[in-house]
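We store chain and fold; thus.
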Amino acid sequence: MREEMIKRTVSIRPPEPGSTGGTSERRTVSPGGVGQRTPGAATGQPVQMEFEAESLAKSGAIQTTGGNASVQSMGAFGNSWSGNEQVFWNVNAVGAVLDLIVEVPAASKYAVEIYMTRAPDYGQLSFEIDGKASGLPFDGVAPQVMPSGPTQLGTFPLLAGTRRISLMVTGKNMQSTGYYAGIDKVRLYPAGPIN
C-alpha cells in the first residue's frame, strides 16, 4: 500500500491536434480533487460523486509512476465521452501506476464505477481503491476507439478525505499494439455505513 500523502512528479502533456503527443510540462502534484457532488454534501452525509478524469488532471490531482498523463480531446471519435475529453495515459511498461486523487466528503462504503476507453493500442489494467484491490481486470483492446461504458470495480469502505483510485498496467492482449489507457470519469455511489 502506498503512502497517501506522497508527492510525485507527473508530466501533463497537452496533445497536439490529431495526435496524442505534445511538449512536456512538469508539475508537482499535491493531493486534491475536483468532482461534482449531489446536493447535501455540505451536511457530511454520504453522497453520489462524479469525478471527470480531465478535471482531475487539470487541477493537478493525477500522479503517475511511469508514462505521461495528458488531457485529450475525443471529438474526432464521437460524442460518447463526458465533456468530450479523457485522460490519455501514454505508458509502455507493465507495472506503471496512475493515481486519480479524489476528495470524499463523508465516510461510507461506496460502490465505485469507472468509465474507460478501448482502442487497438490499449493495454490491460488492474485497479486499487484506496489501497484495496478491486479484483476486476480491465482489457482495453478494441478494433477501434470506443468508450467502455460503466465498469463496476466493487464496493469499498472509504473514510472522509483524500483517497486514491489507482490503475496499474498488468500487460496487453495479444491483439493490442500497446499498453496505453484512457480514463473518462469515475463515479462513487453511497452503499451503506462502514461497519
About this structure: The CA atoms of residues 101 and 164 lie 5 Å apart. The helical segments are 53-58. The first strand starts at residue 9 and ends at 12.
